[in-house]
Protein 1
Amino acid sequence: GGGGGGDCRVAWEHSNRAFVLRVFATWTPAQCLGLPVDAQTLVFPVVTEPGPVYAVLGLRKVAENVAYMFFFTETWFRFRVWIKAFLKNAFTGRCGEPTPDPIYEDEHIDDRGHSNERPGYLRRQIQFLVYKLLSQAVTYCFYLTVSPTLRYGPNSEYYPLSPAGTKVEGDDLEDLDDRNYKNALIFSGASVLMVALSGLLASWYIHTYLPYSKLVLTSMYGPVLTSNLFYGFLISVFASSMLLALSVLQYHNRIWYYREHDWPLSGEEP
């Protein structure tokens, strides 16, 4: 454990900039680009039974986050090594070749998790889960802070969060009334708490069952938390995702609403 930590610190000293670029080029966009999709599910939440609907949506997200920790188990990793080799041999006509065994030693400290080495794979999955939870929390906070401006602000007519922004000639959309909008805000606030609880559960699991992975990640990536470059990349990725979400929702792009008629996007009858 101690030797691994020393190796990690040396690796950081020699490749801190490369690490930051690699992490944010690989993990953060993969998670944060889902931000517009999650945000749009709350754009026009007109439901007749908000209790059951939001309960199902919330529990589904919690179950998804908890189930993700199954990828940390040894059972899953053995299956992963076997199925990768099996499919590769099947598609290349070498079905008779034996499948390799999982590697449990940390032979490459900078392994990116795509090999048969479990330590590197665990580090990748832990990072993936961290950014997955972070992007979910930012999504709901984004809705809580930005949607009131889009609903009540001076540009409300350009977004579907206000009655002025939902009325397009030829459409039969129902207005987003105060009741449905309030329910969406409550769900977003509750979702932030559920994401936080999922994060606490994941943190406990990693601390209890994956102490070596936690030690290595802390040694390697701890210094990044004091790096201005880290926060610059983080802010830029989240900001670009938020701007993408707002662009998709704009009145002029017309991606957000449902149309029953085969009319062109301009809103004019053929």
Note: The radius of gyration is 23 Å.
Protein 2
Amino acid sequence: ISERVDQVLTDCLTNLIFPRLSQPISLTVCVKLMTFLRRLGVPDLEIRRLFLCRKLESLELVLTETAKAQSPYSVLSKAISAFKVHLSEIVLRFEACFPLTDDEYVAELQSWVLDRVSAFSSVFAKQLHYINSGAELASLANQLEHLSPSLGQVSADFTPLLVPIIIKRAEELFTTQLRLANETYLAAMGTQVWSHASSTTQKSPVDGGVPMQLLQFLPLAYIANGILNACNEIRKCAFGALGVTCESHIDRLLTTVALEIEN
């Protein structure tokens, strides 16, 4: 009889308890499962490890599915949504099943969450490198803003760690547009036909003393349009920290152009 009971309990754990823990479950069901394991005499340490291990499998399965999306933007967008729902749920379930008055429990949960955050941040930074649109970058930044309160409720908000990564990518998009503008300018300068303007063909300066010949200088128009394109590219995700950096990039570009025209 004892062997039969052990076999039934083993089958119950393998075919019912473990699979249910690996799935999204309600708080009531989660508490009942933990209570059942305690009544079987399973130590709390083993129950906590089992819980976190199964929830890790569940979270990784969800994130693996998001990685199958067709574009980097879709991958990141779905990953943010999945993390928002599942990480908060896991932490809340853990807090309900295990008293966080015990420092050991708190440290165990914090370590688990930290590992998940580290893994997510690594994937986020890797995929963000393939985002080539300022609009998509702004959308991801907005989604992180909505993720922050959700994780903050369970003391797991890590979104400030991702802001520097987004700012860096925005700067890269900005400098890419400036680089393209400079390349177009240099190509135009290579085909520019120079001629000496006679006094009869020179036109009077306009508003502030800018010569009309300069306004009609096509390579300069390419530079102006390039700067506008660069600003428009990051317009929706223009973090304050980008101000000084972008100004410096523009200043260097215009200095290079001015020296080129002068020579």
Note: The chain has ten helices and no strands.
Protein 3
Amino acid sequence: VLFPFGHGETYTTFDYGDLQVDLIDVSTVRVKVTITNSGSVTASEIVQCYIHDVESSVYRPEQELKAFAKKPLKPGQSSTVEFTLDKDAFSFYDVGHQSWIIEAGDFEIRLGASSRDIRVRETINLGSVEVSSARARDSHPPFRYHVRGRGVSDEVFRCMLGGEELPTPVVDVWPFHHNTLMYELQHSYMGSFFRRKVLDTAFAGMDDSGDPHQRRLMEALVDHTPLRNLVVFSQGNLLFEDLQVIIHALNMCFINAILGIW
């Protein structure tokens, strides 16, 4: 990722150190960290505090931003940044209990300059007595049980809906019109044929490197193009009147198409 969440440019560098994490009570934590401007330019650093639930029984993000503070520092100057994290920072909404709860276990406190630039971290243990409900565990299983890059299964999604049957997707793209996307043409034989001709024309205009990634990108661009944009992309070779004739033909209205030609 070139610009991760929380990323910011600066003309200097900042060092993080002397992290202190103190448990005030069962669900309140005080966090202190010292930052130092180790560069030669006066600048401000935005210190970001993230929470990571080490062993959650339900799905939670890898880390959650819970606090941040902006601290201006001169070259060589150090300052202490302090955060107080309460129950809201560690809890999640349990769909079974219909309330916010904190599970007992380890939580990692992470501080850094962005979500991908964590400088210091420390783990604490919260001794909560709250337990997640069976419905929460079944409907939102932990991320470690998921296959990265894929969505949840139909069974898990059904649990998220409270056990209800999944609605059947309704695809209604007929009749085609000026705002129809190219990929929607695949619902008819004529549409699939026309889409393939447009793709062949687009591929012919590419270089001869044969890069499959470039071809997939071009295919995605074409598929998400509305029919009306073909007039613009044709550089004057296709008029809106011509496009209307094509749409009539795609909709199997051949008489209207012939009349449009005349």
Note: Helices lie at 87-90, 134-139, 154-160, 189-204, 212-223, 229-233, 240-250, 254-261.
